[in-house]
Amino acid sequence: MSVMEAVAKTKFAELTFDEKLDRLAEVAVKVGLGLRAGQELIMSAPIEALPLVRRITEHAYKAGALLVTTFYSDDPSVLARYEYGADASFDYAPKWLHDGIAEGFRSGAARLAIAGANPALLAKQDPAKVARANVAASKAGKPAMELITRHEINWTIVACATPEWAKLVFPGEPEHIAVAKLWEAIFVSSRVAVDDPVAEWKEHGARLKKRMDMLNAKRFSALHFKGPGTDLKVGLADDHLWAGGGTTAGNGVYCQPNIPTEECFTTPHKDRVDGTVKASKPLSHQGTLIENIAVRFEGGKIVEATATAGEDVLNRLISTDDGARRLGEVALVPHSSPIAQSGVLFWNTLFDENAASHIALGQAYSTCLIGGEKMDAAQLAALGANASLIHVDWMIGSGEMDVDGVAADGTAEPLMRRGEWV
Ligand code: ZN
Ligand code: ZN
């Protein structure tokens, strides 16, 4: 029985669409954010997500929110910039806005992002302009982003099916069918298509924590990935810490930063990654699908990178800065995750990274090092944590991937066989 067939047999299948949407909103506020009474909420969303935004806003105020403020984005308006904007526009980002949001976080606001923008929106735009706009946005957004990546505040991301995204995921379907299918896939992947989603998330979180505790107790010095086209040794950073599922943010609030989440992840050592690796799924990066990525690492650094499509985007990406050729994350995800089982390529990292074990180029999470939240850049680098303006996950796991944990003395222990936990 497929995941979708199993869901068709639950009470969830009998709910109206509005009731289903309300379940997702409730999970976003109660599980994702763990929003506290008196806390401000800053939300960002595509304009098409308005019905979900309204549901989330209701749940937030019911939970005692001080004020809910939403910033909307609009895909056609983004395209207008590329079509008519002056050249200088692509090196500019509204620092004043990002600083204001950072100030909001520092004074206690939680953050919720709704994903749903068309992943292929910028596919036909000048990649150099796209890269410049991203660098400008990353620089301006750094103070706010640091509060998020350091988990100083409670935050979460949930998704909303939008027409352009849905048509990309389900090509050939009429728009309304594609949107309905994408919504079902989001509900199933986000673990809300069950009778009691809040209880389900409690159990799911406990299961992830058990894996994490096991990995943290083992203190492996490296992971060894073996699969078709892959023979990769990923050294782990000294004092690395595995994370996954929920986290207690610096403000003391317990939150689930990603909905869905199926991964246990940690910080690789930026200088100790060697071997070859082949992506198991296409990587959708800023509107371009990069297909069949194959990469060779030497001493932590990519020395060879190819792709059968989007190779120029890949090369531009790894040339962003010094850290863009090195790893900032390694994550284990079983092939039996509901996202993998849905068989859907979402064109969105929030989902696709939870379908397979993966690695990420670029910035490491300081929270994945013992005491890392309080360390400065030099201390983090000394332990092997990578630094970069980018953080891009790409999928390497599959039902054919074996993973060993390698101890400091070189002895290997099977962690995953054919994509499943041993
Ligand atoms: Zn990840
Ligand atoms: Zn990542």
Keywords:
422 residues; alpha+beta; Thermophilic metalloprotease-like; 2 domains; 8-stranded antiparallel beta sheet; 5-stranded antiparallel beta sheet; 21 strands; 24% strand; binds zinc ion; Aminopeptidase; EC 3.4.11.-; aminopeptidase activity
What does this entry look like structurally?
The protein is α+β, with helices and mostly antiparallel strands. It folds into 2 domains: 3-189, Thermophilic metalloprotease (M29) (Thermophilic metalloprotease-like, 3-Layer(aba) Sandwich); 216-245 and 262-421, no CATH class. 35% of the residues lie in helices and 24% in strands. The protein contains 13 helices and 21 strands. It has helices spanning 3-8, 17-33, 50-62, 75-84, 95-106, 127-149, 163-169, 175-189, 197-218, 311-318, 338-342, 349-352, 377-382, and strands at residues 41-46, 68-73, 110-115, 155-159, 222-227, 230-236, 243-244, 247-248, 254-255, 264-266, 268-278, 283-285, 288-290, 294-298, 301-306, 327-332, 358-362, 391-395, 402-406, 412-417, 420-421. The chain has an 8-stranded antiparallel β-sheet, with helices on one face. β8 (247-248) and β9 (254-255) form a beta hairpin. α2 (17-33) packs across α3, α5 (95-106) packs parallel to α6 (127-149) and α7 packs across α8 (175-189). It starts with a helix and ends with a strand. The mean pLDDT is 94. Bound molecules: zinc ion (2 copies). One zinc ion is lined by residues 263, 265, 329, 331, 353, 358, 393. The site of one zinc ion has 4 residues, from β18.
